Each structure stands twice: as C-alpha cells, then as structure tokens.
C-alpha cells in the first residue's frame, strides 16, 4: 500500500473502503472481509447507522485496531457545539472505539449556516483526544476559507463526489492549493453507466484490468483518495489491486475528458443540497 501524508502529519492509505448501506450481520461480514483483504481505512458516518457494524467488524478482523484508520462523520442536525460533542461521543460508543482517526463534517448545509460552530467542536474534540485528524465533506472553496478565517484551522481532508463523469477539477485544485487532501465518494459512480463507458473499457482492456480498477487508478494518479464500497469479497479485492499499473498522460486526459457539467449521480450540489 502507498500512503498520503496529511498536513497534520497523519498518514492515510491511498485507497479506503466505503460502507454506506453495509449494515447488520451481512455488513459485519463484508467489512471484516475488506479488512482481512488489506483495507485499513474504513469510512462510515453517524447517518449510515452502521458505526456499530463497523466496530463489530473491526473486533472480528485479523488486523489490530491500532493498525486501522476509522473515519466517521457528524450529521448536520448536530452542528451546535455541545450537540456535536455529544454526537461524536455517541458514535464512539456505538462503534466501541475510544477514538476516530479522522472525523468529518458531513455536509456544509450553507443555508442553515452552522458549520463554523460545528468546526469549533471538532477542533476541541481533537484537543480532547477523541479524534486524530479533522476534516469536512462537500465543502466548496469559500466554505474552506471561512473555516480558516474564523477559527484559524483549515481542514486536512475534503471528501467530495468524484468519478470520471464528475471529475471536480476545480475543487481538486482548490483543495490542493490549501493543503487539503481530496477523498472521493462514489468513485464508481454508484455502479452507474460510468462502469460501461466505452473509453474506460478500451483503456481497461489495454491494461488487462477492469473499468473499476482504471477509475480508481485515475483517482490515485490525480493525488486523491477513493473510497469504493463493495459488499463482495471478489470486488473488494479487485478494487484494492490498482498499484501494479500506471495510466499514461494520454489515458489520464481521455478519462478527464469524460466529465459532464451535470455529472453528479444524484444532483447533490453542496451549494444548495442540504442533509441533516
Ligand atoms: N461524504 C459523503 O457525502 C458521501 C460519502 N460516501 C462514501 O463513499 C463510499 C463510496 O460511495 P458509494 O456511494 O457507496 O458508491 P461507489 O461508487 O463506491 O459504488 C458502489 C457500488 O458499486 C458496486 N461495485 C463496487 N465495486 C465494483 C466493481 N469492481 N465492479 C462493479 N461494481 C462494483 C457496488 O456493488 P456491490 O456492493 O454489490 O459490490 C455498489 O453497488 C460510500 O460507501 C460512503 O462511505 C458516499 C456518498 C456521499
Ligand atoms: O452517503 C452519504 O454519505 C451521503 O451523504 C448521502 O447523501 C448519500 O449521498 C445519499 O445518497 C443519500 O440519499
């Protein structure tokens, strides 16, 4: 595995595991399988209602907790300061963990305008030792700058929707300029049409790889960290097996050219979409 170093010093693997919709005993089985196969960064969220499932999988897996990186997220309904700390403690309790390695604000919800207060809670939770690194999801450049301006602390991670049909070139550059690592949610486009794209298929065939593997390799060569989810051991293994080939500049460009202005999978524009 190769690693990124966050600006606060924490190292993250270049690829992690998404867990949205992995719940209950089937979820425990799937997440245990992912860890046993080599995933060390596990992405969950309060709103996935599966932090207990993630904790159970970690206790069953063959890798000690100290060698894993667990990432969860604070939902928008808990952005008042004390609510945020209480929700974080509840998430830790549900997962049976003493700390999260990384912890993110889930959505900016700009109309509600509470994300700065929530950010102050994360800054303090980090000081209390409940979280190692703090970040955000779905933050536009102006929201990142506001956090820096009002609290003096820039997030180290911004997790955003990113796949070949919505490649986020502008947001990626904005994150990089600010020293923020971009993580990619729905990197496989939630198993939508992108997985059958003919350009991706041609490139995949040229490398004797699958389309999913080409997408994840493209993410990593852009310096971002994809979080593919799969309930199936064989796909989990395939999605991790992306470190033995390299896309050429021309192939990278051909994939970049697939982006579409309205390429979001569910139209969730963080300037207008709100989630609590
Ligand atoms: N911060 C945020 O706002 C958000 C964060 N996330 C995070 O990002 C993670 C990933 O995004 P997600 O929306 O789950 O979607 P993904 O883009 O990871 O796609 C998951 C889908 O692709 C299928 N799949 C996985 N691997 C392959 C493969 N190699 N070939 C073909 N199909 C495959 C899966 O099926 P199967 O399971 O049957 O294998 C599943 O249906 C989430 O699980 C979550 O952790 C997601 C959305 C928003
Ligand atoms: O999965 C997540 O992390 C989300 O933020 C959700 O909004 C997800 O994108 C979704 O599709 C909810 O319908």
Task: Please give a quick description of this structure.
The protein has one domain: TIM Barrel. Helix content is 39%, strand content 15%.
Q: Which small molecules are bound? A: NADPH dihydro-nicotinamide-adenine-dinucleotide phosphate, ligand LYEC3VGP
CATH topology title: TIM Barrel
CATH class label: Alpha Beta
Which strand-content bin applies to the residues? 15-25%
Oligomer: single chain
Main beta sheet: strand number and arrangement? 8 strands, parallel
Structure classification: alpha/beta
Low-confidence stretches: none
- CATH superfamily assignment? NADP-dependent oxidoreductase domain
> What's the SSE pattern?
EEEHEHEHEHEHEHEHHEHH
Taking the alpha carbons of the first and last residues, their distance comes to 35 Å
Query: If helices are DSSP runs of H or I spanning 4 or more residues, what is the number of helices?
Result: 10
* Beta-strand segment tally: 10
**Radius of gyration, taken over Cα atoms and rounded to an integer in Å:** 18 Å
The number of domains: 1
From the 3D coordinates, which CATH architecture would you assign? Alpha-Beta Barrel
Indicate the mean pLDDT.
Answer: 98
Largest sheet, spatial ordering of strands? 3-4-5-6-7-8-9-10
CA-based shape: globular
The helicity comes to 25-40%
Biased composition (Polar residues): 266-276
InterPro entries: AKR, Aldo/ket_reductase_CS, NAD(P)_OxRdtase_dom_sf, NADP_OxRdtase_dom
Organism: Lacticaseibacillus pabuli
Pfam family, one: Aldo_ket_red
